[in-house]
Amino acid sequence: MAILAAALYSLSSPLSKLLLGKVSSAIMAGLLYLGAGMGLAVVKHFQKQMGGFREEKKLSGKDIPYTAAMVILDIAAPICLMIGLTMTTAENASLLNNFEIVATSTIALFIFKEKISKRLWTAISLVTLASIILTVEEGSSFHFSMGSLFVLLACICWGFENNCTRKISDKDPLQIVITKGFGSGLGSLLIAFAIGEQLPEIGYIFGALLLGFVAYGLSIFFYIYAQRFLGAAKTSTYYAVAPFFGVALSLIIFREVPTASFWMSLPIMAIGTYLAATE
Asked: If DSSP codes are grouped into helix, strand and coil, which group holds residue 58?
């Protein structure tokens, strides 16, 4: 389930970058999560109608702090990612998404007291090194890519969010994703309208909503189920195959020539991901 979640999420960066030519960053972030919430609300309705619905534990009052934090972080993270995608290549952004392993695992250790093995620490170190290489822009002077930094900031937000979601992962996954989708989607759209962004043409709205349903909604649904059995840190390591799917799709779609830093970081990231996923 974690790998299926990763495959679906890998569609996000390359296809979002295509849409960002016509859709502004905060609007795009809002539509992605709104598509997730709306799509899974329909799935839940048909589940009940067809008799395939299994009763799950519902969110309760004691879950409110984690649920609220989850929604707020899911507003911040995709906005940062969309801004980053407008400033860096889709393949760089896809590969940098693996920094979510580092953020999720270290937060799981220091705040939520999950255990991390020496092998996973080695993986975290390699992924961090690869992320640093990707973040440094090539040129006559040493400086950092603002696009890459925004992608890393999104990963940190999602690292906190993954751990918050882990705390309520024994509750109804459909309810969690629908709450995420409508809460984060509407929140992002309110921010977008507040800063003066405008809705795009209707075709691009439907495109973003559909992408959100598949890459965010269904992906998060399977991710939450995986967390029940694996924990936040371990689930994020299996999920780490998503960036490599995203890189391959980005290279096919955009046919860009990757930079030297991309090729330098790719094997380091791959080794780190392998160590994490086989820990």
From this structure: coil
Q: Of the candidates 242, 247, 240, which has an alpha carbon nearest to the alpha carbon of residue 274?
A: 240
Q: How far apart are CA 222 and CA 227, in angstroms?
A: 9
- Locate 166 and state its tokens: 């882990």
Dist. CA 159–CA 237, nearest whole Å: 12
111-155 per-position pLDDT tens digit: 878 788 888 899 899 999 999 888 886 544 456 788 999 999 999
Q: How far apart are CA 27 and CA 224, in angstroms?
A: 25
Measured distance CA(192)–CA(36) in Å, rounded:
18
Q: Which residues touch 232 (CB under 8 Å, ≥6 apart)?
A: 104, 108, 112, 114, 162, 163, 165, 166
Residue 37 and residue 178 in contact, taking contact as beta carbons nearer than 8 Å:
yes
